[in-house]
Amino acid sequence: LQIVGGRLADRYGGKVVLGAGVLLWSLFTLLTPPAAFLGLGILLLARIAMGMGEAVTFPAFYSLYGRWIPSGERARAVAFTNSGIPLGTIVGLVVTPIIVASLGWEWAFYLFGLLGVVWFLPWYRKVTASPGQDPTISPEELALIEGDLAGGSTVESPAWWTFLRYAPVWAIIVAHFCNNWSLYVLLSWLPTFVSEGLGVDFHSVGWMTMIPHLASFFFLNFAGNIADRLIARGIEVGRVRKLMQTIGFGGIAGSLLIVGEVESAWAAIGVMAVGSALGAFVTGGFSVNHMDIAPRHAGTLMGITNTAGTIPGIIGVYVTGLILQATGSWALVFQVTAGVTIFGLVFFLIFASGRRIFD
What we know:
With about 350 residues, this protein is mainly α. The protein has helices spanning about 1-10, 15-30, 30-40, 40-55, 55-70, 75-80, 85-105, 105-125, 140-145, 165-195, 200-210, 210-230, 235-260, 265-280, 285-295, 300-325, 330-350. The two termini are about 25 Å apart.
């Protein structure tokens, strides 16, 4: 439902689509414990419904960006929002065991589900889908925003397959796929690697694997500011996107090639922290490139590329398991992941563009 969510957000506004999505996934998070008691089939349906709500998140974000964020502030906006992801991961790692130990596993779902409902109340009251609908905006700020990008105007999005005719769109799709391959593999397998591959006590793994997330949180905002400053200095947008992508994917690939060879847990975590810090620079690369080429249709385009970005969560994690089962080699796992990342970098450098393609 990524593409559907993007098209709905571009047409009806990111406010209502994101708000409805959060309410939907919060509701089915709240319903997860009773669904689990009713049986596996009901539980799976509840989790699918939660995923349907989550699907609209990033497309709705990008639709809002396309109407609210001037070109000179886009990387910072994306970076600031995305830095909530590692921060949320850290909070989840710390808070969930406390909730489970104190109240029972069901309350992890009840409290996190309730959090989304609480979030919705100020969101519905304070946020508008476009600057022109905001009663508090000044005429000067409105003129600045609408003079730079799509503003509050709504136009019919091209058919989604029309986007696939353009090489710069494929550059983002491939980069998104390759970025998420490394992301999903590390989220799924890094704790296992530290625990089983390096022999660290399982109860210590959660705390150790937070360190790369902390590095990502801080460096996302740092990298976003650098990208916008380079553009403000007059460097061509496409060149900035490729530079940031090179730092990001180069850092990820380098850390992956090294981490499989280390023998100590702290060395592995240190290497991955450096990789996460450098990997944050993609926020000024492919992550913001959607708005360069299609600011009025950024939600739809994000829906397309993030659909590709979810595929590694299915096949990347599975392939990693097959490699481990067949060879037992963690080094090979990380080498394959690095190879995917390098391919994504080369493809992006060849085909990416900072020029607006869709009006």
